[in-house]
Fold:
Amino acid sequence: MVIPAMPLALTANHEFDRQAQEALARYYMDAGAGGIAAGVHSTQFAIREHGLYETVLICVAHAIVDWSFKTDKSILTIAGVCGKTRQAVEEALTAKDIGYHAVMLSLSAMKGESLSAMIDHCAQVAEVMPLIGFYLQSAVGGPDLPYTFWRQFVQIPNVMGIKIAPFNRYKTLDVVRALCEAEKEKTITLYTGNDDAIVPDLITEYKVKVNGKYKKVRIKGGLLGHWSVWTKKAVELLDEIHTLIETGQAIPCELLSRGVQITDCNAAFFDAANNFSGCIPGIHEVLCRQGLIKGNWCLDPAETLSAGQSEEIERVSKSYPHLNDDKFVKANLNRWMDEEVTFFIKGNGKDAVDT
Structure:
């Protein structure tokens, strides 16, 4: 499925914008996303320092519960957790109490720790909630996680998926090979977070030789900051790829060319020219241009678009109009902004709601 990594909506005063945050959630769900990940890198890890972690998770959960009751559809809810073990476990407990289905664990705070310490850290979080592993690229704080780490990680009970996002073909293959050699390819789902190689990741069938026989595995969907913008087109892209694979059709050259165009867009959105320093304000800028949020502000006022990044976003927007969902957003924006939540989580959010 398509799982957007939720950005943080702020006002010009750098305060939490609940209305826009709820509107973003409605946008993703109406666009056809199968899940939403909140409290992750795209939401800004600094929400914890600003006391917004639980606030954002609850706000997004309320919007999802409300939408689900009104449409009779379900959405997978994923909460990002980070920090040392105590913090990560506490955040997992918070997500569980709110009613999230799973947590995705960032290991940035565990840089420098031994592999065994990191595995123990992951196992303790997995005891609280179903766990999605996260291979975050080093340019934005992710630690190097070798094959030996992933070979042990996939053996942890309650691991349900892995987001592969090192922006590196060799490291991506490490995760795939570890999954196959541990014979976990049928119980753990792989998601791409490689925003620079979305289409190649999704169309590739990996074949890994284990005990003399080839195991076949695919990356089934994406959990992406890139898919937090132009989301309807992302849903259409994934549906198209799944149909091609399921029907056994050849991958058309046009799809490969479109994949390169998507990567070009990502270079602008994520500020690849400046080592991704403007990746979060870049995503905000695209959403702001569509009217979904009021500005490209981040919690840190110094975190802004890089020089020339706005022009790059303008360039790719004009070059690839078939990749945006501007018409879809324009047709629904007022409704997303004006709609009020009427179904709320009650208690721990597992079973009951208040109207």
